[in-house]
Specification:
This protein has a domain of about 200 residues. It is about 65% helix and about 0% strand. The protein is built from 14 helices and 2 strands, in the order H-H-H-H-H-H-H-H-H-H-H-H-E-E-H-H. The chain starts with a helix and ends in a 10-residue tail after the last helix.
Length: about 290
């Protein structure tokens, strides 16, 4: 049986990632003068404030520190408030284009309030990025306020997942190569980026990748397999598959307290039409306009 936390994650993720994948990204980059790496880093890390780049790298976890250093300095030079404002302006335009008049319906404000209550209920200790987002002021526009509270819950879940990775000895690049490993059962559906996109978006080198795979092979978690050049050439072992499942189950268990409450199911159900509209718009990777 799927846990309440897993259902919530799978339901809400498309709504959240619209902030980082949408047709308005070009205008946002032009308005800030930032490249995609810097805009993403600044837009997601803005609630952390003007801290050292090492803090951002620690909070993002699966990104190469060198890439974060360069991207964060660029975002700081523009101003984190300016980056956040550009993100919100882009998001509001996208939601209005996708949802139309629905974006201004009273139900949106009601949903935002309900997610705000859920976001306020999460424990913040040890969850740096989730805590930063929870402490940040939510926008007044209802559709943006809804996104903001969902972002708090999403980043809080990410903090929980990072904790499980740390406990199991998987650092940032190991988390990437382990997640991207081919599964024992290729028919199982999951979200993955592939080797090239992971390295491009996370900033890891070929040497980083290969050294990580070697560490996982030495631990008996993956095995090398034949694959076309540029493709993932390692597969989970039975021990790796067991750890993979345990990581996901532990992450879900840590988040269960938020979603196993009265009214959470109804809140998710009320959000699904909005999420479907985002998916049907065809702007997210792997989706087509319907």
């Amino acid at each position: 049986m799927t846990s309440a936390a897993r259902t919530a994650y799978e339901t809400l993720e498309p709504f959240h990632v619209l902030a980082y994948f949408n047709p308005g990204m070009g205008d946002a980059l032009a308005s800030t003068g930032l490249d995609p790496h810097a805009f993403y880093t600044g837009a997601r890390g803005a609630p952390l404030g003007a801290c050292d780049a090492s803090v951002v790298a620690a909070a993002f976890y699966s990104f190469a520190p060198a890439q974060i250093e360069t991207a964060w300095q660029s975002a700081l030079s523009v101003g984190l408030d300016a980056v956040a404002q550009a993100r919100n302006a882009m998001l509001e335009k996208q939601y209005r284009e996708i949802l139309g008049a629905v974006a201004d319906q009273p139900e949106i404000a009601e949903l935002a309030d309900r997610y705000g209550e859920l976001a306020a209920s999460v424990p913040r200790s040890g969850r740096a990025l989730g805590a930063a987002w929870a402490a940040a002021e939510a926008p007044e526009t209802p559709i943006l306020r809804l996104w903001h509270h969902i972002a708090v819950l999403r980043e809080w879940r990410g903090d929980n997942h990072i904790a499980t990775l740390v406990v199991n000895g998987l650092d940032g690049i190991d988390a990437c190569t382990f997640h991207e490993a081919q599964l024992l059962d290729p028919s199982v559906a999951r979200r993955s980026l592939g080797k090239r996109m992971t390295m491009l978006t996370r900033g890891w080198s070929d040497d980083d990748w290969e050294q990580s795979v070697e560490r996982l092979v030495a631990r008996g978690l993956v095995e090398r397999i034949d694959a076309p050049e540029g493709k993932v050439a390692h597969r989970l072992t039975p021990a790796g598959a067991e750890l993979y499942d345990d990581l996901e189950a532990t992450t879900d268990a840590l988040g269960e307290r938020v979603w196993a409450v009265d009214g959470a199911d109804a809140t998710l159900a009320a959000t699904r039409p909005l999420v479907k509209a985002v998916i049907d718009a065809g702007v997210l990777p792997g989706t087509r306009k319907k």
